[in-house]
């Protein structure tokens, strides 16, 4: 089994915190879609005939595409690859794009899961983030999608930024629960270089993010999720039983995937590759030169060990020392020695060959993983 990710590099406007690759101009949308269909053909052998279990439209804002444009991309995939009958097909969407007409059109496509970028149910917070939609629209978009027959919906929320008091965060979580969605992703606000938010902070126009606030709101969130029957199956992802994101879970479990579009990454077990993050150069390479504008990295034993540690430790399934041994003999003993301080401090725990984070350890997941790297 394998997955396919399509990067749709268009947005209506730039969110202040976002460092993903995108353009706010749709002028070359048709050419970009043509290039994506061409890349699907150019990359036909990358997954070596694996059946496609998941297709994920990310970005950018894939919901700027019309339903027929989405269908043509999926048709290009099914024309080359074997796609599982029960494949999970996810479309990331902004609330303002999900009107009745768009949803009706999407019902006729293979899309069967939405990831809706709500972020907050407060207008002042959305304006601070420079989001296009407003709070009422966020709530209404989920209900419209549900009324249109889409049940497999996840929503995104953000916490740990100056405007968000604990009371507001609890309200956002309560609103999310009221919508009866089976999956919620929630991320701590991160200040990425070369974003508007980073510039505002450096110019003293905005205060820096508070690690203490983020930690406290993380705890508020995990407690609330547990009470509502959501399983935390990855640091930032929560679901009702049976509603894991199959696509993202495969990332964390080391399943092969093909990334299409500018800036998209691919992984086949032995190599990792990434496309150029430039729309014009990507389209020129694919359409005119008929070649893939990508850099390829042959993964060393150390790369594979560290990547497995970083991804597996973040999940409820944990890190399996047997898998470490399968990558490199003797690596499990080395890791267990490095892990001793984290066991002693109660940040990780072990059952058989499986090492998982404790609730305390989840607050320090990235630091723990870095401390275990080879």
Provide an overview of this structure.
The chain is α/β, with parallel strands linked by helices. It has 2 domains: about 250 residues, Aldolase class I (TIM Barrel, Alpha-Beta Barrel); about 70 residues, Arc Repressor Mutant, subunit A (Orthogonal Bundle), CATH 1.10.10. Helices cover about 40% and strands about 20% of the residues. The protein has 14 helices and 15 strands. The strands form 3 sheets. A 9-stranded mixed beta sheet has the order 7-8-6-5-4-3-2-1-9, sandwiched between helices. Helix 6 links the parallel strand 5 and strand 6. Helix 1 crosses helix 10. The longest helix is centred in the middle third of the chain and has 17 residues. It is globular, with a radius of gyration of 21 Å. It starts with a strand and ends with a helix. About 40% of the residues are buried. The mean pLDDT is about 95. One of its GO terms (molecular function) is 4 iron, 4 sulfur cluster binding. It is found in: Cytoplasm. It comes from Mucilaginibacter psychrotolerans. Belongs to the anaerobic coproporphyrinogen-III oxidase family. HemW subfamily. Keywords: 4Fe-4S, Chaperone, Cytoplasm, Heme, Iron, Iron-sulfur, Metal-binding, S-adenosyl-L-methionine.
């Amino acid at each position: 089994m394998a997955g396919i990710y399509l990067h749709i590099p268009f947005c209506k406007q730039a969110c202040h915190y976002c460092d993903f690759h995108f353009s706010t101009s749709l002028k070359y949308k048709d050419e970009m879609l043509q290039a994506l269909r061409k890349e699907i053909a150019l990359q036909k052998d990358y997954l070596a005939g694996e059946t496609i279990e998941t297709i994920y439209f990310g970005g950018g804002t894939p919901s700027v595409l019309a339903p027929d444009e989405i269908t043509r991309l999926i048709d290009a995939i099914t024309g080359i690859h074997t796609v599982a009958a029960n494949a999970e097909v996810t479309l990331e969407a902004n609330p303002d794009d999900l009107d009745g007409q768009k949803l009706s059109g999407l019902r006729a496509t293979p899309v069967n899961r939405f990831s809706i970028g709500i972020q907050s149910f407060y207008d002042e917070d959305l304006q601070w983030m420079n989001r296009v939609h407003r709070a009422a629209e966020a709530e209404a978009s989920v209900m419209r999608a549900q009324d249109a027959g889409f049940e497999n919906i996840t929503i995104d929320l953000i916490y740990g930024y100056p405007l968000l008091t604990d009371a507001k965060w609890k309200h956002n979580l309560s609103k999310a629960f009221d919508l009866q969605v089976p999956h919620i992703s929630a991320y701590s606000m991160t200040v990425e270089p070369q974003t508007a938010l980073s510039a505002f902070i450096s110019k003293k126009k905005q205060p820096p993010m508070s690690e203490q606030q983020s930690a406290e709101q993380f705890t508020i969130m995990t407690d609330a999720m547990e009470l509502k029957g959501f399983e935390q199956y990855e640091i930032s992802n929560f679901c009702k039983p049976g509603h894991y994101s199959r696509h993202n879970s495969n990332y964390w479990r080391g399943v092969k995937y093909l990334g299409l579009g500018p800036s998209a990454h691919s992984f086949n077990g032995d190599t990792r590759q990434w496309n150029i993050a430039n729309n014009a150069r990507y389209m020129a390479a694919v359409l005119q030169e008929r070649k893939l504008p990508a850099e390829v990295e042959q993964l060393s034993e150390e790369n594979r060990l560290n990547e497995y540690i970083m991804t597996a430790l973040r999940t409820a399934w944990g890190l399996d020392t047997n898998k470490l041994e399968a990558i490199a003999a003797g690596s499990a003993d080395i890791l267990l020695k490095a892990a001793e301080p984290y066991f002693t401090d109660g940040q990780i725990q072990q059952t058989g060959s499986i090492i998982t984070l404790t609730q305390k350890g989840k607050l320090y997941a990235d630091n723990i993983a870095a401390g275990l790297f080879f």
